[in-house]
Write a structure and sequence with these properties.
This is Tyrosine-type recombinase/integrase. It comes from Nocardioides abyssi. It holds the Pfam family Phage_int_SAM_3. The protein is mostly helical and about 400 residues long. It folds into three domains: about 45 residues, no CATH class; about 90 residues, Tyrosine recombinase, N-terminal domain (DNA polymerase, domain 1, Orthogonal Bundle), CATH 1.10.150; about 150 residues, Orthogonal Bundle (hpI Integrase, Chain A), CATH 1.10.443. The protein is about 45% helix and about 10% strand. Helix 2 packs antiparallel against helix 3 and helix 11 runs antiparallel to helix 12.
Length: about 400
């Protein structure tokens, strides 16, 4: 029966020999990257130093440290980034917007910190300090995004056998600072509506008057819970105002890939976000008004569009909303604020599961954690229940 062979990169017991010149030689049998067993030795002034030198030699001989193909331990981090981005394109699994985000985060956040290092020099300690510094000087979110792309790229280096393990995996876990989702009150929503309706409507102002789409978009966001890109991607054929209540199918989003024209993507943020929602009367009325404007066009035509009938960009809508609210002195409101408001209102009336269904989430935990404003008020039924603990015969002995 053949003896099982030791795995590549392993070695047996170290033999030490005192040499005539006063040094100590450390020697070991080592199974090399090609499967052959060889003797490797190193010498130094003491047994401990000789062992250390020997292990350094062995570490440099291990198979995973040799690399294959385009990457090796001596490849620069910049080279890894190029190979990684090419690999992302080869797989083709990412949405163009996600692919662009990954590259931007890598080039702006990560590459400046590691571009002068070889792959063998990117240690757990260096990565850990980089992520901690980014979380302190920038934000938790920025550090998390940087950590994600760095881990993906170094994971590719592991698969290319340029490094033995991914150093990101052994870094200290980022602790997200406590935050609460903030929903808008009814009064705040009314203030926003008023500000948008009155913006640049006064006589004597230069330039064209607003076309009214911004206030209509807000009503549809409030009536559907949809993200801004999903609202801008609603087509004529996605709306049904012949039923009561009216319905809207959320099945796409507007994207603006780098170097490419803005266009409608055929699915929302995720494939599972596709849904048909019933909308309240105020949103249905807005949609009826928009349908009148495009009565003679094909079902694929967008409900909201530019003067040239091209898609509106999410950045332009955000910029316009910010300008309106800044002028009105309203701070901290973004398109996502309306989505959180919808989630909170539905949760209070129908629970987190219904809110998650409305928002297109696969789990109500996501909705509760990021979208529903915490409710500090405990159900008052507890007062009735606790009456069972009232003292018996209170006041019977008085007088």
């Amino acid at each position: 029966m053949a003896r099982p062979r030791t795995p590549i990169g392993t070695f047996g017991a170290i033999e030490f020999t005192n040499m005539p010149n006063g040094t100590v030689r450390a020697r070991v049998r080592f199974r090399d990257h090609d499967g052959q067993v060889r003797r490797v030795e190193a010498s130094d002034s003491t047994r401990k130093l000789a062992e250390h030198r020997l292990k350094e030699k062995l570490a440099n001989r291990r198979g995973p440290a040799r690399g294959i193909g385009e990457l090796s331990p001596d490849s620069s981090f910049g080279r890894l980034v190029d190979v990684w981005l090419g690999d992302l394109d080869l797989e083709g699994k990412l949405a163009p917007s996600t692919r662009a985000l990954y590259e931007r985060n890598m080039r702006q956040l990560v590459l400046p910190a590691f571009e002068h290092f070889s792959l063998r020099e990117i240690t757990v300690s260096r990565v850990d300090q980089f992520i901690k510094t980014l979380a302190t000087t920038k934000s938790y979110s920025t550090a998390k995004q940087a950590r994600t792309v760095l881990s993906l790229a170094l994971g590719l280096a592991v698969r290319y056998e340029a490094i033995a393990k991914n150093p990101v995996r052994d870094t200290v876990r980022l602790r997200k600072p406590p935050t609460n989702a903030m929903a808008l009150t009814v009064e705040q929503v009314e203030a926003i509506r008023s500000a948008v309706r009155s913006w640049r409507r006064a006589s004597g102002l230069a330039g064209p008057k607003p076309d009214g789409q911004l206030e209509q978009i807000i009503e549809v966001m409030l009536g559907t819970s949809a993200r801004i890109g999903e609202v801008l991607a609603i087509r004529k054929g996605d709306v049904d105002v012949t039923v009561t209540p009216a319905t809207v199918r959320i099945c796409g989003t507007i994207v603006s890939p780098k170097g490419k024209p803005t266009h409608r993507q055929q699915h929302p943020k995720s494939q599972k976000s596709t849904r048909t929602v019933s909308v309240p009367s105020f949103a249905a009325e807005v949609l009826r008004q928009r349908l009148v404007l495009i009565a003679g066009v094909e079902p694929e035509h967008l409900v909201f569009f530019s003067r040239n009938h091209t898609p509106l960009t999410t950045n332009n809508v955000r910029r316009r909303l910010r300008a309106v609210l800044d002028e009105a002195g309203i701070r901290g409101v973004t398109p996502h604020s309306f989505r959180r408001t919808v989630a909170t209102v539905i949760d209070r009336a129908g629970g987190a599961d219904l809110a998650a269904e409305m928002l297109g989430h696969t789990s109500s935990e996501i909705t509760k954690q990021h979208y529903i404003e915490p409710d500090e008020k405990v159900n008052p039924v507890t007062a009735e229940i606790l009456e069972a603990l009232a003292p018996k015969g209170l006041g019977d002995d008085v007088g």
